[in-house]
Amino acid sequence: MKTFLKIGLCLLLAAGFTACEKDETPTTGRVKVSCKSSDGLKSFIIYTDVEPPKNIIYSKHNPREDFSVDFNPGNYIYTFVKSSGTSTGLVNFQIRAGRTTKISYNNGSPTIDYE
Known about the structure:
Elements: H1 2-19, E1 29-36, E2 41-48, E3 56-61, E4 67-71, E5 74-82, E6 91-95, E7 100-106, E8 109-114
Parallel strand pairs: 1-7
Antiparallel strand pairs: 1-4, 2-3, 2-5, 5-6, 7-8
């Protein structure tokens, strides 16, 4: 009888450990940037959400192809700088944990879409 009790207890413990899943809560979010432009972009810059933006946390020169970057959740500011030296202006956006933020630039008009 004691043997069955020991085996049952071992099986119960094994089932309990198996049922405990690792907590896989995402801690970062992703930014996907798509550049479909004919007006020559010089760079894409992401700043921390501070007015005026001072801290550049990401910069991509000549953003001709699509790319993606992972960031911590929070509020950020981005701008596209054209070859002429002018920019598209500062645009606020948000990174959410486990989600994707899509930024598209299509011939002068940037858009943001959240997934």
